[in-house]
Structures are given as structure tokens and as C-alpha cells.
């Protein structure tokens, strides 16, 4: 096993679900490098830098699609306090942007995200309250980030280029759609280190069947991309070098749809999921009435009946 940039390189047999001794499993699934003192800065914008030449979150607009890249490859893009803040700010900004119609989220290097920065969290165990206040702050911030993805009026698509574990797996589950590389792997391995993946459980249990979600949570084993697709965690599996482009193309196709209609539909989808069947139908019926009265529906239905292309309102 080689040592690369301060963390142990994971052997290939781990990536395909092979069994490792406990200590090495923990190292492979959870090892996140803490930022150096030079890199530690407070995030003020979604492009804030963690060092003189390093952005925590890279931004690139491809037509109407905003590509956001988690940029801590040496730490497997783990979700430090600053990364959470940067991503939350970027999602919020995308939601109000007139030029952005869809968002794609990916990771730099060989990982999508390995979850929380455990070294950053552990450093606060020496606080007078043993870290309680800081732990609450981070868990709340991460939960708020996940909610911001669900509540963003634009579709958010995960382009999973590598491992997505713990809160990284939660991030995939929180996105509206997910495209996975054939090399992607997923896990909620907290149970292996005495920290059950309780917040990832929220997103996971809303994407997978109960038994599939519980198996991932109770065993903490790696799930490959094809298994993840079968379970409903991702939509598509593509070659490694096609992952981001496939997700961006998916975003472009969605961006061509009427803007207000997409916003109405996404919000209604998530709201009705939490309702009883009767309440969901009542709510959805009221949404359709309002949607019918919108200019987009008037134009779209008119175009369909007239056998012409719709001219969507701007």
C-alpha cells in the first residue's frame, strides 16, 4: 500500500467491495486530511479559497448548466465546515440566478465526497463541552445544505466520479438526479466506527426501500454503481470519462423545459411525499389548477393544439 499526500491509497479490491481488516476499512472509508493553518480561511463566497491557489469549490457555467466541483481532492472532498458553507452559498445563488437553469455537482480527483471531516470534528473534543456545540453546528449546517438542494427551484444533479461515503452518500441522495461513473462506490460506513449515519439515513431512506436502506446503514459495506442503480440511488451508470458530460447534458435537456413549470413540479414532488395519500391528491390537484392558470401552460397547451412549437415566456 502506498502513502499519497498524507493518506493511504485504497487498494483496488476495496473499491469492488472486497473485505479489509477493520482498521484499514476505516482508513479507506473515512480518512480526510485536515486543512493546514495556511489553508484555513472562512468562506465568504461560493468560490472562497482554502489557500493561495486552491478554491474549495470550483464553478463553471456550461450554457444554462452550473457545474460545481468540490475541490479538496487530497482530502477526498470531505465536507469541512468551509466546504459546507461554500456549497450552501452556491446552491442558494443558483436558485435565484436568471442564467442558471440546472446544477451539476461533482468532485475533483478520485472521490465524489468521503463525508464529514472527522479530524476537524475530533479537534473540538478538547472544548469545554467536549465538542457538543461544534458538533451541533456542523450537523445542522450539513442538514441545512441538504435541505437547500431539495428546496432549490432548479434541478440539482450529482455526477458521482468516485467514492461517496457517509455524508457524501447523503449528498448524492439529496440531489434530484444522479449519474454515476462505473468506478463510483457508495457506503454509509459510520456503524463501523461507532457513529451511525443518522443524518445520511434521512436522505437514503427517502430514495431506497426501507430494507435496502437499512442494509446499507447496518452493514456499512460498499455498494458499486450498478447496485446503486438497482437500489434507486442513482439514475444512470456511464464510463468514468463520461460522467460529468452526461450529467451536464442531462441538465441541458432539462434546462430546455419551461422554467416556472419545473419549479412548480419540483416543489410539489417533494411536498406531496410527506403527505397522506388523500392529502397528497388534494394538494396536487390545487397545484395543477394554479399551473393551468400559468402563462407557460397556456402557451404550451395552445402550441400542442395548434401543432406548433411553443414560445415559452421569458
Provide structural commentary.
- With 314 residues, the protein is α/β, with parallel strands linked by helices.
- The chain folds into two domains: 3-255, 2-enoyl-CoA Hydratase, Chain A, domain 1, CATH 3.90.226.10; 259-306, Orthogonal Bundle (Lyase 2-enoyl-coa Hydratase, Chain  A, domain 2), CATH 1.10.12.10.
- Helices cover 45% and strands 16% of the residues.
- The chain has 13 helices and 14 strands.
- The strands form four sheets. Strands 5-6-7-9-11-14 form a six-stranded mixed β-sheet, with helices on both faces. A four-stranded mixed β-sheet has the order 8-10-12-13. Strands 1-2 form a two-stranded antiparallel sheet.
- Helix 3 runs parallel beside helix 5.
- It is globular and about 65 Å long.
- Residues 1-53 have low confidence and may be disordered.
> Biggest sheet, open or closed, and with what strands and sense?
6 strands, mixed
The number of domains is 2
Q: Topology as H/E string?
A: EEHHEEEEHEEHHEEHEEHHEHEHHHH
Please, what is the CATH homologous superfamily of the largest domain? 2-enoyl-CoA Hydratase, Chain A, domain 1
CATH topology of the largest domain: 2-enoyl-CoA Hydratase, Chain A, domain 1
Principal-axes shape call: globular
Number of helices: 13
Q: What assembly state would you assign to the polypeptide chains in this entry? A: single chain
Measured between the Cα atoms of the first and last residue, the distance is 56 Å
| Parts with pLDDT < 50 across at least 5 consecutive residues | 1-53
CATH class of the largest domain: Alpha Beta
Rounded radius of gyration (Å): 20 Å
Query: Based on DSSP secondary structure assignment, what is the total number of beta strands?
Result: 14
Query: What is the average of the pLDDT values?
Result: 86
Question: CATH architecture of the largest domain, please?
Answer: Alpha-Beta Complex
Amino acid at each position: 500500500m502506498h502513502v499519497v499526500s498524507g493518506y493511504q491509497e485504497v487498494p483496488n479490491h476495496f473499491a469492488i467491495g472486497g473485505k479489509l481488516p477493520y482498521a484499514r476499512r476505516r482508513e479507506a472509508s473515512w480518512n480526510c486530511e485536515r486543512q493546514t493553518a495556511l489553508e484555513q480561511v472562512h468562506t465568504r463566497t461560493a468560490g472562497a479559497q482554502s489557500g493561495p491557489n486552491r478554491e474549495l469549490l470550483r464553478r463553471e457555467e456550461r450554457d444554462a448548466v452550473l457545474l460545481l466541483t468540490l475541490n479538496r481532492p487530497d482530502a477526498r472532498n470531505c465536507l469541512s465546515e468551509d466546504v459546507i458553507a461554500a456549497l450552501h452559498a452556491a446552491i442558494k445563488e443558483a436558485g435565484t440566478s436568471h442564467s442558471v437553469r440546472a446544477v451539476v455537482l461533482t468532485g475533483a480527483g478520485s472521490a465524489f465526497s468521503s463525508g464529514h471531516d472527522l479530524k476537524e470534528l475530533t479537534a473540538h473534543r478538547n472544548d469545554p463541552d467536549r465538542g457538543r456545540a461544534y458538533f451541533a453546528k456542523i450537523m445542522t449546517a450539513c442538514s441545512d445544505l441538504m435541505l437547500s438542494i431539495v428546496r432549490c427551484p432548479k434541478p440539482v444533479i450529482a455526477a458521482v466520479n468516485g467514492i461517496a461515503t457517509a455524508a457524501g452518500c447523503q449528498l448524492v441522495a439529496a440531489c434530484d438526479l444522479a449519474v454515476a461513473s462505473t468506478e463510483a462506490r457508495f457506503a454509509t460506513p459510520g456503524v463501523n466506527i461507532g457513529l451511525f449515519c443518522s443524518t445520511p439515513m434521512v436522505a437514503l431512506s427517502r430514495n431506497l426501500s426501507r430494507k435496502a436502506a437499512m442494509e446499507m446503514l447496518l452493514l456499512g459495506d460498499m455498494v458499486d454503481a450498478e447496485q446503486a442503480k438497482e437500489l434507486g440511488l442513482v439514475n444512470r451508470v456511464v464510463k468514468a470519462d463520461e460522467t460529468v458530460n452526461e450529467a451536464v447534458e442531462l441538465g441541458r435537456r432539462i434546462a430546455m423545459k419551461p422554467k416556472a413549470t419545473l419549479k412548480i413540479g419540483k416543489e410539489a414532488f417533494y411536498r406531496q411525499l410527506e403527505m397522506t395519500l388523500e392529502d397528497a391528491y388534494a394538494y396536487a390537484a390545487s397545484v395543477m389548477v394554479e399551473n393551468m392558470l400559468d402563462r407557460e401552460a397556456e402557451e404550451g397547451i395552445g402550441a400542442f393544439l395548434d401543432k406548433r412549437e411553443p414560445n415559452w415566456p421569458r
